[in-house]
Amino acid sequence: MTRIESVRLRRILDSRGNATVEADVLTESGGFGRAAAPSGASTGEYEAIELDPGEAIASAREHAVPRLEGNVYVGDQRDVDTTLRSADGTDNFSEIGANSAVAISMAAAKAAADVLGAPLYQHLGGAFRGDTFPVPLGNVIGGGEHAADATAIQEFLAAPVGAPSVQDAVFANAAVHQEAANILDERDVPSAKGDEGAWAPSIDDDEAFEVMDEAVSTVADDFGFDIRFGLDVAGAELYEDGEYHYRDQTRSTDEQIEYVADLVDEYDLVYVEDPLDENDYDGFAELTDAVGDRTLICGDDLFVTNVERLSDGIEQDAGNSILIKPNQIGTLSDAFDAIELAVENGYDPVISHRSGETEDTTIAHLAVATDAPFIKTGSVGGERTAKLNELIRIEQNVSRL
Ligand SMILES: C=C(OP(=O)(O)O)C(=O)O
Ligand SMILES: [Mg+2]
User: Fold this and answer.
1) Count of structural domains, the chain
2) Does residue 31 belong to any structural domain of this protein?
């Protein structure tokens, strides 16, 4: 085992043109790891705190870096992450910032993998990890907080569940994205792209469902395997004063549950994320009871990758799936704990990017390491394809990752 020799932090650009934190971890034996924090726009109320990157870096340099350098063994991820937590001293990383914490945590894991001469997924998953690969959920049409004047529902996600390989699945999602553009063009609907590279046309959700349904079935016929689709409703962003606000109408909680349940059946949806507000465990439980036998009801803002919030959900049978975003909780160890608790209780973990991203590929490795059934990381755009192409390389077992 080798100790951390130095931790270097800097501001770099993310995909929205904002600053974010990048960390380099060097070990005493010459190992090296680099990672960067992503950043959300439709952030959950209960997420760990992202500080201004300059402040996060200054605070981590003062409080965390001196405790890590020369003291902590890089392969001992729990110790790295416990040290980050105790250096921070708060429950939610409000002192050093979850952005500094997650960048250092992921960079340390990469440095440990480098020392071992193993790919990151192998280091994180161990020698006896399974050999399944995640189905990529590809964002095709979207709006909400990710694009102005577009759909109310935040994400319409292609899900190539029948793809024989990750590579086929990744190409299928890109084809659905292209086909959706063709259909919008035929309908004379102009469209630019939102934060995650999805089309962000000024259409209502009903029309987006029509476009998705057609695009998915055309590409499924072309590719010769089953492609379905799903949603991230981002319900907390629609919820205000006890009602869900869509473009031209509002829905009460009961109406929202009925609406989503009907959509699951009408479009055979394979996945529905955050169908309700982030405080509505009861609503999640009711919807899961109604349709959880035929689709995933996933908590993102509801659970925020947090074992305590997930435990509450498990007790109440709220949802049957959890979105895993390491920066929502601040360290890889915490993300692993959430995945483990989920799997033990029959909840499917879905590893996810953020709307603000970098070229960092850690989540592709995390998904493979933990045998996650799904990964949500866009369908086009350099910061998204960085992860998707890394999945293809991992699947092909290439020698240098
Ligand atoms: C990826 C998402 O968006 P953001 O990063 O803006 O929270 C999401 O809500 O699942
Ligand atoms: Mg979400």
Assistant:
1) 2
2) yes
